[in-house]
Amino acid sequence: MPQEISVSYHAIKSKVYRLIDALVAGEKTEAEVQESIRRWWKLIHRADRPIAQKYLLTVLERSVSALDAIEDGLTFSNACEGPDRPLPCEQMKVMERIGKEAGLRSAV
Question: What is the distance between the alpha carbons of residues 60 and 102, in angstroms, rounded to a whole number?
């Protein structure tokens, strides 16, 4: 008997935030998060996928907006304090990736 997966906005937001938290905490790698989301998506009934996709994209767009707001607040804070120290290469890559993904999602 297939497992029923809730496609409510709250359930999807919780799933996304748990995955983000696991990645940030180092409990999962990016590949593990990707595999987890693939397995989760396969459990969603085909008829429920359009609404699940709508909610998922909404959560991701709002998450990117929150990250942008955090980045802007940090940039403003650093500008007020004086010259910035360059960010490490890995942090720059992450920030560029987030920016690219935000652009792709807005085009959807």
Answer: 9
Domain range spanning residue 97?
Answer: 9-107
Q: Residue 25: how many CB atoms within 10 A of its CB?
A: 8
Convert the pLDDT of each residue in 83-103 to its tens digit: 555 566 666 667 777 776 666
Neighbours of 52 (CB within 10 A): 21
- Per the structure, how many domains does the chain have? 1
pLDDT tens, residue by residue, 32-88 = 999 999 999 999 999 999 999 999 999 999 999 998 899 888 877 666 665 555 566
Q: Tell me which amino acid residue 64 is.
A: V
pTM for the model stands at 0.67
Q: How far is CA 46 from CA 1, 55, 102, 103, in A?
A: 16, 15, 26, 27
Residue 2 inside a domain? The answer is: no
What is the chain's length? 108
